[in-house]
């Protein structure tokens, strides 16, 4: 039914120390004056900046990782040329043949070597690299073209390695129509239906027009990125960089040189802590709920292999996706065509679906069940929050931009402070942008968290609430409190206080979110033990107002709150 | 357009010259349009179609032979890969496995081969496909034979 093979499993196991911090204290703080956070946190900066310990949860936008490489067109060409040279040398075959082989084996040099040296004959056979012609041409002065059936002088006729004769004009038409059909032209074969001789770039160079040759080269370059399991194009509009990713290097967040960030695995925007499948489900859900997607959902389905929407325009249930995918599947059950029978237990499973549908049974029952299960209200709740965080993030991005281009300079003059000492403001905004993104995705996470896992839900909502609260506090500080210093008319004594407050909030929020991400990526696996305890502790301290107050009071004194937030920090080491 | 017309004319002359070459296939070009052809093919022996004569209609596109002709049965036929109402045929060479070296004649031969070797996994006619898939070969054969008699044989008397 689905093919997950191009999705690498993204459940990365990580040490979980999220809950060891004293959450009830974190929780009790909100009503206090925030200053104690900052002053007490000063001591922690050393720890925070010292980030050699765990690269896994690094914010990509701030700490570049080595798990991937961004490639420009020249890099790609160079790598491709190098790989072709390698194969051509080691196998003693032409560069054209090496290209055909590499493309066939998804540009994996080692795979080509393995297959070739294990069974050269078999590889030649399946790829279509013939060692000698399969037909014996007569010595006549004229030969008959196998497409237009004209008898023509020999020098009008040309052939692939098989020697099947076709005239140059027919070759031209054949090559042109396949090149204009798309990247499928890279696996071009001899036009003779019984022949599988490969037609490589040497033939293209000889027989295609300049424009077609150019197209072919583009497809070849694209193939090097698209057919290679280790590389992908940056999905940003108009960006021509590609990303080479080292599988197994922690999370999938990558940041292109064009400054666009995305999840390498599914090419959506970065979405930690939610996994790729949940993101896909969520995006599909959003699409299904918006009216204008109805048409495409009714008339087309995503190809189960490459996920492109394939429109049904024939009576036949046997669907063939467009090249280069060409995956064959059943329209009704979306199973692979080759294994169709086995999977559905004969043709009957498919049939029953259709019969029920005709009687209008399936539609009604299914719809009612759907409605009952996912009440629209629940969806609206999560979607609204997801979307608001999205908007809020966009706003923060433009504020950050405004800050960097205009405000910082102004502030520097007003406060008589070098711009280099105002970095904490940029950092705060970068943190806000990142946290908005995380928070947004926790709403998709929450939507799919099973209803019956009460303890988990409860704890999740608690953590999310805290995150929301912490982020609002930071966002507000950066947005509103900063304004005071921008509108004043001279250096303000309070600016230093503001600096330590904002820097403190930034680091506390950063830590909180990093831990949140890890906890959710772990599927809240500790919820039964510590989490439940933390929750009940919170509840009890809340219920007994006196205790709560008492704790809060102590927190205000400084040492207690500082201690607790340091706990959170410590645990990430 | 010019190339396709020239190619079709070649095929036409070939057909005229070797009318008796393949006794199972009779290809006829439309009187006024070289892009429209019909064919009469004989049901292969030892199949439920034996004894029947089936008419096919060809619509040849202007990009022929770079693109395949559209072919359908005009005669009713009970076959898993032929749509019972429209006569549409599910055959790979008429879709993505097409090659410009195929001819109308060789397409007819491929269709005769399909009649002898149905592919129940690619059904356009689900009843027929189901019979074969469930192993009810006798049921499939008797249905196919009945339709051959009803639709593809000259009426007696
Ligand atoms: Zn020719
Ligand atoms: Zn050949
Ligand atoms: Zn980019
Ligand atoms: Zn993803
Ligand atoms: Zn596909
Ligand atoms: Zn099916």
UniProtKB/TrEMBL annotation, chain A:
Keywords: Coiled coil, Metal-binding, Repeat, Transferase, Ubl conjugation pathway, Zinc, Zinc-finger. Its cofactor is Zn(2+). Its EC number is 2.3.2.31. InterPro entries: ARIH1-like_UBL, E3_UB_ligase_RBR, IBR_dom, TRIAD_supradom, Znf_RING, Znf_RING/FYVE/PHD. GO terms for biological process: protein ubiquitination. Residues 1-57, 534-573 are annotated as: Disordered. It catalyses: [E2 ubiquitin-conjugating enzyme]-S-ubiquitinyl-L-cysteine + [acceptor protein]-L-lysine = [E2 ubiquitin-conjugating enzyme]-L-cysteine + [acceptor protein]-N(6)-ubiquitinyl-L-lysine. Pathway: Protein modification; protein ubiquitination. PROSITE patterns: TRIAD, ZF_RING_2. Residues 141-354, 145-191 form the RING-type domain. The keyword Zinc-finger applies. SUPFAM superfamilies: RING/U-box (SSF57850). Belongs to the RBR family. Ariadne subfamily. Might act as an E3 ubiquitin-protein ligase, or as part of E3 complex, which accepts ubiquitin from specific E2 ubiquitin-conjugating enzymes and then transfers it to substrates. This is RBR-type E3 ubiquitin transferase. It comes from Durio zibethinus. The lineage of its organism: Eukaryota, Viridiplantae, Streptophyta, Embryophyta, Tracheophyta. The gene is LOC111307790.
From TrEMBL, chain B:
CDD domains: UBCc_ScPEX4-like. The active site is at residue 90. Keywords: ATP-binding, Nucleotide-binding, Peroxisome biogenesis, Transferase, Ubl conjugation pathway. GO terms for molecular function: ATP binding; ubiquitin conjugating enzyme activity. The keyword Nucleotide-binding applies. Its EC number is 2.3.2.23. It holds the Pfam family UQ_con. It comes from the Eukaryota. Residues 3-153 form the UBC core domain. The keyword rRNA processing does not apply. SMART domains: UBCc. InterPro entries: Ub_conjugating_enzyme, UBC, UBQ-conjugating_AS, UBQ-conjugating_enzyme/RWD. GO terms for biological process: peroxisome organization. Belongs to the ubiquitin-conjugating enzyme family. This is E2 ubiquitin-conjugating enzyme. It comes from Durio zibethinus. The lineage of its organism: Eukaryota, Viridiplantae, Streptophyta, Embryophyta, Tracheophyta. The gene is LOC111285157.
């Amino acid at each position: 039914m689905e093919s997950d093979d191009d999705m690498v499993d993204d459940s990365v196991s990580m040490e979980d120390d999220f809950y060891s911090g004293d959450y009830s204290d974190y929780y009790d703080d909100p009503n206090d004056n925030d200053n104690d956070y900052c002053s007490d946190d000063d001591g922690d900066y050393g720890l925070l900046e010292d980030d050699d310990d765990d690269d896994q949860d690094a914010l990509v936008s701030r700490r570049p990782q080595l798990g991937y490489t961004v490639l420009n067109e020249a890099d790609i060409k160079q790598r491709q040329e190098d790989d072709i040279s390698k194969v051509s040398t080691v196998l003693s075959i032409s560069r054209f043949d090496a290209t055909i082989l590499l493309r066939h084996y998804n540009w994996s040099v080692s795979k080509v070597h393995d297959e070739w040296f294990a069974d050269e004959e078999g590889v030649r056979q399946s790829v279509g690299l013939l060692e000698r012609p399969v037909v014996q041409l007569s010595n006549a002065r004229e030969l008959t073209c196998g497409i237009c059936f004209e008898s023509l002088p020999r020098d009008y006729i040309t052939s692939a390695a098989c020697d099947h004769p076709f005239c140059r004009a027919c070759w031209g038409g054949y090559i042109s129509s396949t090149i204009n059909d798309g990247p499928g032209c890279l696996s071009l074969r001899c036009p003779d239906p019984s022949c599988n001789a490969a037609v490589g770039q040497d033939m293209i160079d000889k027989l295609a027009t300049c424009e077609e040759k150019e197209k072919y080269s583009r497809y070849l370059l694209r193939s090097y990125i698209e057919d290679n399991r280790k590389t992908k194009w940056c999905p940003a509009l108009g960006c021509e960089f590609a990303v080479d990713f080292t599988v197994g290097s922690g999370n999938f967040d990558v940041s292109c040189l064009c400054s666009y960030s995305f999840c390498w695995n599914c090419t959506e925007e970065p979405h930690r802590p939610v996994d790729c499948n949940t993101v896909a489900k969520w995006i599909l859900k959003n699409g299904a709920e918006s009216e204008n997607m109805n048409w495409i959902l009714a008339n087309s389905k995503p190809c189960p292999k490459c996920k492109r929407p394939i429109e049904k325009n024939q009576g036949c249930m046997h669907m063939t996706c467009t090249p280069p995918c060409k995956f064959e599947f059943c329209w009704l059950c979306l199973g692979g065509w080759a294994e169709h029978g086995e999977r559905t237990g004969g043709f009957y499973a498919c049939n029953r679906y259709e019969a029920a549908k005709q009687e209008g049974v399936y539609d009604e029952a299914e719809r009612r069940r759907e409605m009952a299960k996912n009440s629209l209200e629940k969806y609206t709740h999560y979607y609204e929050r997801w979307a608001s965080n999205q908007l809020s993030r966009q706003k923060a991005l433009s504020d950050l931009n405004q800050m960097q281009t205009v405000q910082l300079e102004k502030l520097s003059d007003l406060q008589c402070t070098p711009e280099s000492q105002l970095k904490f403001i940029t950092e705060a905004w970068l943190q806000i942008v990142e946290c908005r993104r995380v928070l947004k995705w926790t709403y998709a996470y929450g939507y799919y968290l099973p209803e019956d896992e009460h303890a988990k839900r409860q704890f999740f909502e608690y953590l999310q609430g805290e995150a929301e609260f912490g982020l609002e506090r930071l966002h507000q500080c950066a947005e509103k409190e900063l304004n005071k210093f921008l509108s004043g008319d001279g250096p303000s004594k309070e600016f230093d206080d503001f600096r330590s407050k904002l820097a403190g909030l930034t680091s506390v929020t950063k830590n909180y979110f990093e831990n949140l991400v890890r906890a959710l990526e772990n599927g809240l696996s500790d919820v039964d033990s510590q989490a439940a305890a933390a929750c009940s502790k919170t509840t009890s301290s809340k219920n007994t107002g006196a205790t709560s107050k008492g704790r809060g009071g102590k927190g205000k004194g400084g040492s207690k709150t500082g201690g607790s937030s340091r706990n959170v920090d410590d645990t990430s080491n | 357009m010019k190339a396709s017309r020239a190619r079709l004319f070649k095929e036409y002359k070939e057909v005229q010259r070797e009318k008796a070459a393949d006794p199972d296939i009779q290809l006829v070009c439309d009187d006024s349009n070289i892009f429209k052809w019909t064919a009469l093919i004989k049901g292969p022996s030892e199949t439920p179609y034996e004894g029947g004569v089936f008419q096919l209609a060809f619509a040849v596109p202007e990009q022929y032979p770079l693109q395949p002709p559209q072919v359908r049965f005009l005669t009713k036929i009970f076959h898993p890969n032929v749509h019972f109402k429209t006569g549409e045929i599910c055959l790979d060479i008429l879709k993505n496995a097409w090659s410009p070296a195929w001819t109308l004649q060789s397409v007819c031969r491929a269709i005769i081969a399909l009649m002898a070797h149905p592919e129940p996994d690619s059904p356009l006619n689900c009843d027929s496909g189901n019979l074969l898939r469930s192993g009810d070969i006798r049921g499939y054969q008797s249905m196919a034979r009945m339709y051959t008699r009803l639709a593809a044989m000259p009426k007696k008397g």
